[in-house]
Fold this protein.
Amino acid sequence: MPADAAAPPPPRSAGGHIRLTSHSAGDGAPPLRWGAPTAAERGPVVGTTTTRAHRNVVGTHSGAYGVYRALAVAAGKLSREHRADLTDTSPTDVIGPHPQWADPAAIVSLDPWGALVADAFGAHIAAGIDVRPTIAVTKAQVILPEVHEAIFKGRLVPDGRVLLATGAAQVTKAAIEPVWYLPGVAERFGCSENDLRRVLFEETGGMYPELVTRSDLEVFLPPIGGQTLYIFGDPRHLSDSAVELTARVHDECNGSDVFGSDICTCRPYLTHAIEECIQGAQRGGVGLVAYSRKEGRALGEVTKFLVYNARKRQVGGDTADRYFARTECVAGVQDMRFQELMPDVLHWLGVTKIHRLVSMSNLKYDAITGSGIEVGERVSIPDELIPADAQVEMDAKTAAGYYTPGVVPDVEELKKAKGRGLQ
Ligand SMILES: [Zn+2]
């Protein structure tokens, strides 16, 4: 930084000085060999901030929540030396290891051993290395008004196993934090690892200097949201291609998923998928909803709401023929979800065949089949579940190549204003 720069000096750490980047020589970090066949050969992911010499990745744990952890330390609420007590936290269900875990190209955006660290890397933990889980697996019951309605209308029947008489569905759920193997991520996007590192560094405002100073560190814990899995039936069946798998990969839409906003089909499609998953599990199959934190096509809610206004205020009203164009005007792109990384979680689960894919997205379908997973039937959202204001989105998507068993709208149909105005 030039001497005349006006920026205040950075706050001092407990050590009294700030170290901008670490150095590779002579430290005590355990080796990390992505895609190695066993946990012992792969080595633990160590993103601790307490003993920097042990770190073998760029970034910190907990995705975006790492920033809240920093706030808690800054506010004096959390000791930076705190280590998780992992007693009784182990997964409720065994997932893997699967052959895909040992393929460095099959999984590049999560740590397949992330749920098993207490066992797989117990020796490292005992030796004082702060190894933290990046995946947690637990059990739950989920209760949804749409499932109650399906029971009331006779589409779903409680069986006391998958679906209880109370209307609660029994699930195994897993939370997964992002862990990126940078050479593999670069390959998925067809760019060089150097370019990926440089752009990640620059476009986060220089947040992670080690991206450019430590090319020996190949793994990055990015400050983004992760994903959650909801599994209906026995999770061990997910890797058995002979057992019927019903699956939806769903990208977060808080407005619809949680608050019931009717401008899109996200919640109706999600609850329809849950209904399909329950039915599939009751037939002796297994159901999976993989929920990714990629709000508003990973453009974020502010951009999304700006686009809503632009769509509804444009001359001619909210029409499907300008649905994608309005997004591109505001965001610069139509979509930043980049489904290239999405199939990783399926490979973590050992999935080789999805018998019923509850999705109309050609991008998701292409990503899944392109990663070597077979897809049988594609299940579209029933027409009666599409909210009136969401017909604009549905027409735009089917015209753009989304799967539909119905009629693809023509040019004239796309020009008809179908969305509500703002008033
Ligand atoms: Zn939505």
